[in-house]
Amino acid sequence: MKGWMSKLKAISALIVLSLVLSGCGEPFLSALQPKGEGSEMIFDLMILSIVIMLFVFVVVMVIYTFVIIKYRRKKDDDPNFIPKQTEGNHALETLWTVIPIILLIILAVPTIQYTFALADTSPEVNEEGEEEDSLWINVTGAQYWWHFEYEGLEVSTSQELYIPTDRKVYLSMTSQDVIHSFWVPTIAGKMDVNPTGNTNEMTLLAKEEDVYWGKCAELCGPSHSLMDFKVVAVSPGEFEQWVQDMQGVTGEEVPESATAQEGQQLFADNCMTCHAIGADPNKMGPNLTNFGDRTKLAGVEDYNKKNIVEWIQTKGKDMKPGNLMTSAPYELSDEEASKIAEYLMTLSPSDITTENAEDGVYKDSDLSSLFPEEEEETEEENGENTEEQGNEENTEQTNEENNEEQTDDQ
Ligand code: CUA
């Protein structure tokens, strides 16, 4: 009776545990509810490997149970009976060598295919067979925040990465101190960022508008677990507007209220060495261009004036232990810190915010306004071609060769 009870307890615990664990993961932070191209591929591989594992488990358990029941020693069996020995049975050994090989091949083919597909950062090709312009974003990891610089667009931001949906976004990634790992589980896989000078590349393709949560997935110091960030996926038309609004920011914009104006002066005197407002990428601390639109303070704390003042006054010592700002030399009164907070909260250059990622409104765009330099590039290429042709004696032949080369490349 006692043994039966403990078995019942164990089974109930297992049921409760599986119910609790199956509820794990919010939709905006779960690799099990993929909303991006990369995460879908990874999810498919997970399902495939689970199916194969289940198949092996079931087959083994069926044979095991069958053998236990069928060949159990009966009461009237001869106790000295030794069953027929099958050591060195060629058919059996071949069978249990070939089956795992087949299973591994089934697993390996899509895994290798997807690995190369996920590492592919070549430009996308549209329906007419033309290469589309690629939106590249330089990502820099730092203790304990992320910097995002939109290449060629004069837009920088940090902590909250705005991207368009339904369009591949290309990330060029590095670190300014130690190794971090960029991970937005709902959209894509992980990518390490290294401080040693090499740049890693990956792509993001979000299929639905939403605010996706990102984590640093590499132990990087005392506040590693607090190194959260967001990916704000808005429709392409809204993204285009966001970029245009962000491009206009210089940091000189004068806020409306007198308190915020005083805060702006205090910010300029005490904070501008490390922080930028506008596209300036060469700062040690997070870019604050659209700080007023942030959903979280420092990636993890509730976004409100009280917390911002506390952050300024404690330099984030307890909110994010080990962060670089703790060595900043400024000293401010609570009143001054409050004025700076008020100023920072006015920094909202765009009407496009996280709300647009959640309101279900979709504005389409091919983002062509973000790539005006396309024609110049073609001219440059033509220029190079002409030079090459000039150097050759037989211009016509070279032209043909060039055309052939280009066709081959495509
Ligand atoms: Cu950065 Cu962990």
TrEMBL record:
Q: Which GO terms describe its biological process?
A: ATP synthesis coupled electron transport
Membrane topology term: Multi-pass membrane protein
Entry-linked InterPro entries: CcO_II, CcO_II-like_C, Copper_CuA, Cupredoxin, CuRO_CcO_Caa3_II, Cyt_c-like_dom, Cyt_c-like_dom_sf, Cyt_c_oxidase_su2
The record's keywords, sorted A to Z, are: Copper, Electron transport, Heme, Iron, Membrane, Metal-binding, Respiratory chain, Translocase, Transmembrane, Transmembrane helix, Transport
Cofactor(s), by name? Cu cation
**Which EC number(s) does UniProt give?**
7.1.1.9
* Superkingdom, natural source: Bacteria
Chain segments carrying region Disordered: 351-410
User: What is the top EC class of this enzyme, as a single word?
Assistant: translocase
> Molecular function terms in GO for this entry?
copper ion binding; cytochrome-c oxidase activity; heme binding; oxidoreductase activity
Q: Which residues form a coiled coil?
A: none
Kindly list the places in or outside the cell where this protein is found, as annotated in its UniProt entry: Cell membrane; Membrane
Q: From start to end residue, where is composition biased (Acidic residues)?
A: 372-410
Domain annotation Cytochrome oxidase subunit II transmembrane region profile: ranges: 20-122
Copy out the cofactor comment: Binds a copper A center.
Q: Name one GO cellular component term.
A: plasma membrane
Q: Reaction catalysed? A: 4 Fe(II)-[cytochrome c] + O2 + 8 H(+)(in) = 4 Fe(III)-[cytochrome c] + 2 H2O + 4 H(+)(out)
The Swiss-Prot or TrEMBL record describes its family as follows:
Belongs to the cytochrome c oxidase subunit 2 family.
Its annotated function is as follows: Subunits I and II form the functional core of the enzyme complex. Electrons originating in cytochrome c are transferred via heme a and Cu(A) to the binuclear center formed by heme a3 and Cu(B).
Q: What PANTHER family does the record tag this protein with?
A: CYTOCHROME C OXIDASE SUBUNIT 2, CYTOCHROME C OXIDASE, SUBUNIT II
- The name on file for this protein is Cytochrome c oxidase subunit 2
Q: Which source organism?
A: Tenuibacillus multivorans
Q: Source taxonomy lineage? A: Bacteria, Bacillati, Bacillota, Bacilli, Bacillales
